[in-house]
Amino acid sequence: MPAQRYSVVFYDATSGKILHGHTREVSDGSPAPSQEDLEQEALQLAAQRVKKVDLSKALLLHVGTAAIDPNLPYRIDVKAKKLVQA
Fold first, then answer.
1. DSSP per residue over 15-77, as a string?
2. What are the pLDDT digits (tens) for 35-55?
3. Least C-beta-crowded within 10 Å: which of 23, 26, 56, 83?
């Protein structure tokens, strides 16, 4: 069984612009992270790495990573609370 990926994104609640994303890859046989653990990890790393963006008013969304193409831009559809191509 291949590694599983779990992702969350911080996004602007008005525009849907993704401000920061975080993915954790879990190897075969390892337990999946809880949503709370993944959110905490994302917040800690964002605080260290994202200095020019105010995340205090951003919303957080868990997103599926299976269909994400890293070469395409994405945003959040704020009404549907869903990841979509920009």
1. T--EEEEEEEEE-TTSPPPPHHHHHHHHHHHHHHH--SS--TT-EEEEE--TT--TTS-EEEE
2. 999 999 988 888 888 777 788
3. 56
